[in-house]
TrEMBL record:
Alphabetical UniProt keywords: Membrane, Transmembrane, Transmembrane helix
Membrane-crossing segments per the record: 47-65, 77-95, 107-124, 130-148, 168-186, 198-223
Protein's name according to its UniProt entry: TLC domain containing 2
Keyword Transmembrane: yes
GO cellular component, one term: plasma membrane
GO biological process: membrane assembly; phospholipid homeostasis; plasma membrane organization; regulation of membrane lipid distribution
Organism encoding this protein: Myripristis murdjan (pinecone soldierfish)
PROSITE patterns given in the database record: TLC
Localization (cell): Membrane
Domain of life where this protein originates: Eukaryota
Length: 241
């Protein structure tokens, strides 16, 4: 893809997710979520992005399996467009948080978005490592359940069967599509050190280290919130009985 196509695709993505967010503003919101309507719309928009890019990333490897053998040079226009669309989403979400949320509440995600935009941006502009970026987007499969978890909590459905089922699927996909994917990407980067220029290797290594640390912390928070605390509450009820 030429630079003009990249700019057009990325800009179109920013506009698309803005429209999605506006669309959610016109839909009914659960009463329990009305006190923070912006967060409801933001998470719902993120959910849409995860569904689209998660499916898209799988299709990229299904339709162009050669990319799995060469994550540096081999890619299709379909894959390149996926990474450009994701950059557009992260740019949109970055400014949505900057304009609507306190920095103390969003600095972790803002930092995450800066790292992703930088790494993905280098990939689409150089037309290299697109396959590696698509592998990274496989984590969005887990993000579907991660965002659904937040939606259910905001809708006061944290005690529902749907929430408990989603929590188990969320934790399982977290291990498979986040932790395992990050571990595989780190291993790939180390094994292909000689094929990767110093700048790209440094950016990739720093980005992977940051993503790994953030995901380990998030995994602990999810485990504590959805399983450890609930187990403690059940044990307390049994003692009281």
């Amino acid at each position: 893809m030429e630079l003009s196509s990249v700019i057009l695709t990325t800009g179109g993505s920013v506009g698309f997710f803005k429209l999605v967010n506006t669309g959610f503003n016109n839909l009914p919101i659960p009463e329990s979520a009305c006190r923070n309507a912006w967060k409801w719309r933001n998470i719902s928009t993120s959910f849409v992005h995860s569904v689209i890019t998660g499916i898209w990333a799988v299709l990229c490897f299904f339709l162009h399996p050669q990319m799995a053998e060469d994550l540096i040079e081999t890619h299709s226009a379909f894959s390149h467009a996926l990474v450009s669309v994701s950059i557009g989403y992260f740019i949109y979400d970055f400014f949505d948080m900057v304009l609507n949320q306190k920095l103390t509440q969003s600095w972790e995600l803002l930092f995450h978005h800066i790292v992703v935009i930088t790494c993905f941006g280098l990939s689409v502009l150089s037309c290299r490592y697109v396959g590696f970026a698509v592998v990274a987007l496989l984590v969005e499969i887990n993000s579907v359940f991660l965002h659904l978890r937040q939606v259910l909590r905001m809708a006061s459905l944290a005690a529902s069967t749907l929430y408990r089922v989603n929590s188990m699927i969320n934790l399982g996909t977290y291990v498979v599509f986040r932790i395992n994917t990050l571990a595989w990407m780190t291993r790939w980067l180390v094994l292909n050190r000689d094929k990767v220029p110093l700048l790209a290797y440094t950016v990739g290594s720093v980005g992977m280290a940051i993503m790994t640390a953030m995901n380990i912390v998030l995994f602990y928070r999810l485990l504590r919130s959805d399983f450890l605390k609930s187990s403690a509450r059940e044990a307390k009820k049994e003692k009281e009985m």
